[in-house]
Amino acid sequence: MGNDRLTQIVSLCRRRGFVFGGSEIYGGLSSIWDYGPLGAKIKKRIKDIWWDTYVDKREDILGLDSAIIMNREVFVASGHLEGFADYLVDCPQCKKRIRIDKIEKVSENNYRCAECGSLINILESKPKRFNLMLKTNISASEDSPQEAYLRPETAQGIFTNFLNVLNTTHKKLPFGIAQIGKAFRNEVTTGSFIFRMKEFEQMEIEYFVKPKDADRYFDYWVNERYNFYIERIGLKKENLRLREHSKEELAHYAKACIDIEYRFPFSSRKEDSDGEWSELEGIANRGDFDLTQHSRVSKKDLTYFDDEDNTRYIPFVIEPSAGVDRTFFAVICDAYDEEEVKGRKRVVLKLKPTLAPYTLAIFPLLKNNYTIVELAKKIFYDIKNKMPTIYDDTAAIGKLYRRQDEIGTPFCITVDVESLSDGKVTIRERDSMSQERISIYEIEKFVKEKVKD
Ligand code: GAP
User: Fold this and answer.
1) pLDDT tens digits, residue range 143-199?
2) The predicted structure's pLDDT at residue 273
3) Position in ligand 1 atom list of the atom nearest CA 185
4) Theoretical Cys-Cys bridge with 179: which of 64, 68, 79, 93, CB 3.0 to 4.6 Å?
5) Last residue of a domain, which of 131, 160, 192?
6) Looking at residue 97, what is its pLDDT?
7) How far is the CA of 323 from the centre of ligand 1 (A)?
8) Which band of pLDDT confidence, cut at 50, 70 and 90, is reported for residue 252?
9) Which class for 140: exposed (0-12), middle (13-18), buried (19 or more C-beta within 10 A)?
10) 328 CB less than 6 Å from ligand 1?
């Protein structure tokens, strides 16, 4: 495990086109990544499952798609302009720029560099404040720049639209607003592949409740989101845990926060071979902080009229905030497996079938036999609109199976000479590698029965 496993996973992601470095042909950009054909499919499936679970299947949550570029005042109100900053220090020895809150404090003014181990005295190497937001200019002329910001969390678009949604849908508490979208942070601590990116995607719900119900809904959402990762995403229970934030650690807006952590296969300590528990999602009780702040700065009334109690107040909000990229990363790490089969290494991605880029792969046993190829292609064209399917005849059958194992395709179908006379094909299951003959007419039913949510 540990860093070797991470190296293998990163290598698979690049080799098979899951993830590429951003702007790679120009030397890349630090902590900016692109998703290739297969990665984009898995990422979309993760988002679709989340949206389906919380927006399409529930009456109490509404979807939103708000803009990435936001007015500066939004972040005056949210506190991001003031407080969303890291303190950085340059190690005098190895010159690495590091976050002071991430390294060991040795004594009152001394910290230990996590890179080279030397002592950093903060009276000598004065830490500098660095805001993490990305600023842009949206004016038509360079002479009168109009400052705007790329959102550092999708949440702010939800708060600024709270009144619009309330007035257009007439929802009663409790109700939620959900959105999936890009967020941007000028992260300084980088590394560990796609774990910490400057451009990433979030799936956030702001769930508005009566203040007296906040604690109850906080518990509900922690439980709901934890189970989502196991049941809908298929992560192993032993690689997930909950961790409550201490008072000192809480973000400026939060009354309480619990992280859902995943045991990623990387480690800041090389001897730690079991990987490192790191944040996958944060569930926070943000109280009435955001709506109160936006109400104050925008001078708009963001209160809710409670006709049950005949009172007017600012609702509390519970926020389950998940990262799409971190979920993707956890999915790949959880599914990655290496086995020895007949003396050779088999790399297999044991993805939950609903997340796999392809559910089915179709191969002709002999690519030079015209009638076999024709039948295999016919099966492919018949089934490809019913489930994600790929056709491949560019290698020998053993190699074709290995290719599909590596990208997590749960079923492979081989068409052979006998198929021409008995109308049957061989279907092979990814994890057990077991094979059986089934009728061509049964393929869809057979696979659909096994690929359940
Ligand atoms: N609205 C609350 C919020 O943004 P957060 O803990 O800063 O809270 C929520 O972020 C989630 O977004 C994290 O748990 C993580 O999954 C994802 N995330 C945050 N920063 C990220 C980054 N730099 N790269 C990738 N994902 C990130």
Assistant:
1) 788 899 999 999 999 999 999 999 999 999 999 999 999 999 999 876 789 999 999
2) 52
3) 23
4) 64
5) 131
6) 82
7) 6
8) confident
9) exposed
10) no
**Which residue owns the Cα nearest ligand 1 atom 15?**
323
Q: Is the backbone of residue 438 left (phi > 0), alpha (psi -120 to 50) or beta?
A: beta
Give the integer Cα–Cα distance in Å for 335 and 241: 18
User: Does an H or E element contain 158, and which?
Assistant: helix 155-160
Specify the ligand 1 atom closest to the Cα of 323. 16
- The answer to whether residue 268 scores a pLDDT higher than 90 is no
Per the structure, how many domains does the chain have?
3
Q: Higher-confidence residue: 103 or 191?
A: 103
**Does 197 sit in the ligand 1 pocket, CB within 6 Å?**
yes
Task: Please state the pTM of the whole predicted model.
Answer: 0.94
Output the CA 235–ligand 1 centroid distance in Å.
19
Q: How far is CA 36 from CA 33, 40, 41, 62, 211, in A?
A: 10, 6, 9, 30, 44
- Answer whether 192 contacts ligand 1 (Cβ < 6 A): no
pLDDT digits (tens, 9 = 90+) for 22-74: 999 999 999 999 999 999 999 999 999 999 999 999 999 999 999 999 999 99
Tell which one of 195, 202, 205, 229 to mutate to probe ligand 1, the residue whose CB is within 8 A of the most ligand atoms. 202
Domain that holds residue 408: 358-450
Q: What is the DSSP letter of 133?
A: P
> Do residues 80 and 93 both lie within one domain?
no
Residues 6+ away with beta carbon under 8 Å from 96? 90, 113, 115, 116
Is any atom of ligand 1 closer than 6 Å to the C-beta of 155?
yes
Distances (CA, A) of 164 to 64, 157, 160, 161, 172: 11, 11, 8, 5, 14
Ligand 1 atom 12: residue of nearest CA: 323
Q: Looking at the domain assignment, is residue 352 inside a domain?
A: no
Ligand 1 contact via 326 beta carbon (within 6 Å): yes
Q: Which atom of ligand 1 lies closest to the CA of 260?
A: 14
Instruction: Tell me, yes or no, whether 148 and 159 share the same domain.
Output: yes
Q: Are residues 56 and 152 in the same domain?
A: yes
The first and second tokens of residue 154, run together, are: 């999708």
| Cα angle: 108, vertex 112, 116; to 5 degrees | 160
SS3 116: coil
